[in-house]
């Protein structure tokens, strides 16, 4: 129920902790359905909102374990994912070859893009006073206040929120605790370095034989690993293959369901027997239970739930959470060849060896001990859900304040419908809510998309219902309207040009003065203090850092600005660029408050280059068009013919008074117009395409000096510079340049360490 009316000026704030599938979907629903001013703060400790552990894999062979027909993000629109896949068919062609239909198992990586695009679309179409703010940070504390709470971030920033959603998802389990000082051989399956530096012939031990083990086997197969792979778990059960099956009619209601685990097992066995005798597959019997599994679980007494956890969980998991047929085929092939063995046993001891580790395993049935000598041990034991002991800093903090109550059976937190948390005193919190994995003890089946999407929608509805009603002010009418684009209020545009003398690069600050929303285009790492100062002076909030292309002459400041402000990094679509929050293609529109930025695809200088047309009046041309010149075309997929076509057939068709703002100028010029460049640019004016190509192919320019370090660093949005690129770059620079690079590297190494620390 709505609690009260308020006319307070600060908008109501909902903080969402965790930007995986669950957090992103709650934010999406809030953006789509809020009918009053609202700020949604979405805080994600990793760099990619929308992906979480499940969908941040970069490996194309890691497929969804639910087919596309059942993975729509919206329960009320089951065909949504399929339509999105169809709509983006050309852009996604590199990810999977086959034609998509409802039974296709798509790569998890593609699903991550889907979630990101849903959130972006909801953000772009939300009313201007319903706003999403993204933070790349970790929430470490929630301190209740008279109204709402103060949220503390690891970066020492804090802010107030009226409601807090804990969308914390999956934390990796600890491997079997065996004392051994040298753990250098031990890696976590979800860390970036799980298989790094592994000799292709080296034997590997995977602890755990569930879905995470399957992921590791696929990764090893993908990198053509030749060494032996041992997978060990207590029962040695591994996920079973999906198979198309005729649906089985529901045979049970929560009311008629047995109330003991034994009764359950008995009933299920009989039903499977009956079903198979009628030509049904056993999988269809299990699947028919899905709509009522949560209710059945909730009806079991605690002692029976514990019995289920002790004896049946692994059996339930392998039958219920099955794998795509093509994934199963890889596993079966490796088993048949003898390269992979899956066995039941218990790890007893690790003994470090000069080139690996000897692992002593006690076999389940025979109790015979045997030793495996391996070079790497990978923890594939899956998700940790015991919040009584969870080392997660925020959970530990909430536990110590009695703001949450861990579930008595060691699975998640006690919750009320639709996700309000219980305090340790047994009260239903008006402040803290959750969904997904933390509700496992209450709901059992709660970690997969078909369950999460419903929870996200219900929770967002309940959150909006719980907020005090706020009234909107009548918007101030713009004083002046641009004559060419009457729909765009010109007076709200703030446009500033900044210069980096070292590389002669321009950065542009563009903002809506009324809302304070701002974007920086092509920021330079060494100049971010200047940029931050300007934002602060002008009272602006940085929403986006936008790149025109992958720069070769300087490292972008985007990654660092994201760290400091929570802004999103948006780049032209380019598979080489990782760590961006979103990518853009030509024709897309980005709205910053009321400022409209249109992306214009302008390849030629480099393959993935975009110019930005701001409010139809200011054109940021990047390196496609300079004042009286243009960018080079001899690397990064550049092509002179393409550049000529793009400039003459696209940019030169804009109105003559369109202002031209390039990414560089080496002679102190700041701005031109399309009309001027059409007349006076010596590369294009009165030049044929062939003449232009000849000019460009004979420029004989040396490569930018720091290119070996800048390009790889920009592929990571400036977050860090890969070590090998540094070494290459360092080998060819002067002393002064070396000092400059070292200064940059120190900054980036810190970021690099922070980044990976999260996954270890
Ligand atoms: C490897 C794997 C594969 C899967 N495959 C499928 C599948 O094919 N189909 C399916 O339906 N389900 C699948 N799942 C289930 C999966 O749990 C859900 O689909 C979904 O991704 C869960 O999303 P989530 O947001 O609840 O959790 P997560 O994806 O774990 O996201 C939680 C996020 O919260 C962030 N976070 C945590 N604490 C903090 C903090 N204090 N501050 C800031 N950020 C924080 C984390 O960094 C993380 O990004 C898979 C799960 C895994 C692990």
Outline the structure in words.
By secondary structure, this protein is of the alpha/beta class. The chain has 5 domains: 52-131, no CATH class; 141-171 and 384-389 and 399-473, no CATH class; 186-240 and 322-381, FAD/NAD(P)-binding domain, CATH 3.50.50.60; 261-320, no CATH class; 490-707, Metallo-beta-lactamase, Chain A. The protein is built from 22 helices and 33 strands. The strands form 7 sheets. It has a 7-stranded mixed beta sheet. The radius of gyration is 28 Å and the shape is globular. The structure holds flavin-adenine dinucleotide (FAD). Flavin-adenine dinucleotide binds at residues 17-23, 43-46, 52-54, 64-66, 108, 138-139, 167-170, 215, 394, 436-437, 447-449, 452.
Query: Any ligands, ions or cofactors bound here, and which?
Result: flavin-adenine dinucleotide
Helix content: 25-40%
- What's the overall geometry? globular
Strand order of the largest sheet: 4-3-2-8-20-19-18
The number of strands is: 33
- Give the amount of beta strand, in percent: 15-25%
The count of domains is 5
What do we call the CATH topology of the largest domain? Answer: Metallo-beta-lactamase, Chain A
**Number of helical segments with 4 or more residues:** 22
Q: Rg to the nearest angstrom?
A: 28 Å
| N-to-C span | 43 Å
| Structural class computed from helices and strand pairing | alpha/beta
CATH superfamily caption of the largest domain: Ribonuclease Z/Hydroxyacylglutathione hydrolase-like
- Which CATH architecture of the largest domain? 4-Layer Sandwich
CATH class of the largest domain: Alpha Beta
